């Protein structure tokens, strides 16, 4: 199975900060990587698919980059609504795997 | 707007079978455009794809769960069902259904339902 490792696990940040979350795959997943946001008690929400394509309705402060084994989710200017947990998900091969999550919390 | 809603018992006894239903609104399963997946989330183990199905019932289950999982479709009710059994305490999790595509993976999710396993 392809493993995906996110870093950091916890990211202290303030409103207005530029934040970056990294996802590393144990082997190449090409660009078959998605990013999700999850808030407590809610289902994950798709933010980015195909590594860098913004899902409809997602604010443009979110962006994704990378290919192969190294990917980054960037929030250009953190807003109050962005404090949440973020997961990457590779679906290069079935059944795919999820990262363990990065919690963006108040500094 | 596509919406999904999971339903089923919140408590299952060990060795019994968990049965959940996902009702789809805003899209007809008969149209056959999409796949429909079940995912679960353990507090400690994170997110895990259980399996998916098409409108015709073709699909796959996660190899780690394959022998215990059945995913089926009822197009007359516009529902997808999950059966998992026999369960153990390790199957306690929040269970989600989601619309799945090759391109976008899982882009629409239900709110989830919490399942506990206890005697």
Provide tags for this entry.
heterodimer; A: 107 residues; mainly beta; seven-stranded mixed sheet; four-stranded antiparallel sheet; 50% strand; globular; B: 119 residues; 0% helix; 55% strand
Can you describe this structure?
The complex is a heterodimer of chains A (107) and B (119). Chain A is mainly β and 107 residues long. Helix content of chain A is 0%, strand content 50%. The radius of gyration of chain A is 13 Å and the shape is globular. Chain B has 119 residues and is mainly beta. Helix content of chain B is 0%, strand content 55%. Chain B has strands spanning 3-7, 11-12, 18-25, 35-42, 46-53, 59-61, 69-74, 79-84, 93-101, 105-109, 113-117. In chain B, strands 2, 4, 5, 6, 9, 10 and 11 form a seven-stranded mixed β-sheet that branches. A four-stranded antiparallel β-sheet of chain B has the order 1-3-8-7, with no helix packed on it. In chain B, a hairpin with a 3-residue loop joins strand 4 (35-42) and strand 5. Chain A binds chain B through residues 34, 42-46, 49-50, 55, 87, 89, 91, 94-96, 98-101, and chain B through 46-49, 51, 60, 62-63, 96, 98, 103-107, 109-112.
